[in-house]
């Protein structure tokens, strides 16, 4: 945004300390400018009318009216980009999904102060993304997220997910949010070869999309989830015979980071082949496999998500990726499935006429 005016932001949070921390964090970001702060929805309403900000950051916990209730009023009376900022994401099942359905453009999970991480690092990125998201009609809280990714299936969006220890249940949680016509999804889960097929069959029984082991030459298609078989070969994605077509490639090569298949190998290939049309996700697991590859994806323009510390069985792979700067947004496990769908929808709005 070099050379352009900074985005004006109103910060809404019932905590004076949190408002000050957010304002201080955003003051270091030249892309945004905090023009007002509010501790209640009523103060926020007056500031919106008076200041006409580009973006609103909105807390969930507030007196007299919670953030979702205020969000509903904003989207009905004065639609604008809203970033939900909440400390309840890790404990409130479905909060992110509901906020997105009601029209929120982005979400941001409050960092635990004292954890050694800069509080609200990355919030500026979320604000900029929210401001550049094309306006879309809010849908009712009872609507289906499946309908929101129909356009994404026409743009060749690809989701890549890597996981290790604790990943079997984590992947199940993520995929249970996916509709039958989900964007093409490719998974590397560290496990021995003899368990890969039963794992894929189990997922196929309990989630809406079709799940299968990836085979050489498989063309990635919407509604299909491809799981890398453990033990012998890496899974990479290469370009197909037609523009926008992507194909599974099984490669015999030494282990990477001690693993075969390696999450890094998958992510590097997605960065090189799919680029900004990809979404990369790193879930619970030991050590660092996937961190460098996720960084390559982010540098190629892909959106990236890391599982947060509180919901990870082992906060190893997600931590390595976060500390490397590979993660756009850290989220609790319960929020990752809806977040993936929202990102794919946003990619479709940017690329599909």
UniProtKB/TrEMBL annotation:
Keyword tRNA processing among record annotations: no
SUPFAM superfamilies registered for this protein in UniProt: CheY-like, Methylesterase CheB, C-terminal domain
This protein's UniProt keywords: Chemotaxis, Cytoplasm, Hydrolase, Phosphoprotein
Gene3D superfamilies membership: 3.40.50.2300, Methylesterase CheB, C-terminal domain
Database matches in SMART domains: REC
A GO term, aspect molecular function: phosphorelay response regulator activity
GO biological process, one term: chemotaxis
Enzyme Commission number: 3.1.1.61, 3.5.1.44
Chain positions found as 4-aspartylphosphate: 59
Residues in Response regulatory domain copies: 8-125
Active-site residue list: 164, 190, 289
Residue ranges occupied by any CheB-type methylesterase domain in the UniProt entry: 153-347
InterPro entries (UniProt xref): CheB-like (IPR008248), CheB_C (IPR035909), CheY-like_superfamily (IPR011006), Sig_transdc_resp-reg_Me-estase (IPR000673), Sig_transdc_resp-reg_receiver (IPR001789)
GO cellular component, one term: cytoplasm
Location within or outside the cell: Cytoplasm
PTM comment, free text: Phosphorylated by CheA. Phosphorylation of the N-terminal regulatory domain activates the methylesterase activity.
Principal cellular location given in the protein's record: cytoplasm
Reactions catalysed according to its record: [protein]-L-glutamate 5-O-methyl ester + H2O = L-glutamyl-[protein] + methanol + H(+); L-glutaminyl-[protein] + H2O = L-glutamyl-[protein] + NH4(+)
First-level EC class: hydrolase
Functional summary from the UniProt entry: Involved in chemotaxis. Part of a chemotaxis signal transduction system that modulates chemotaxis in response to various stimuli. Catalyzes the demethylation of specific methylglutamate residues introduced into the chemoreceptors (methyl-accepting chemotaxis proteins or MCP) by CheR. Also mediates the irreversible deamidation of specific glutamine residues to glutamic acid.
Similarity comment: family membership: Belongs to the CheB family.
Name recorded for this polypeptide: Protein-glutamate methylesterase/protein-glutamine glutaminase
Organism, as annotated: Gluconobacter albidus
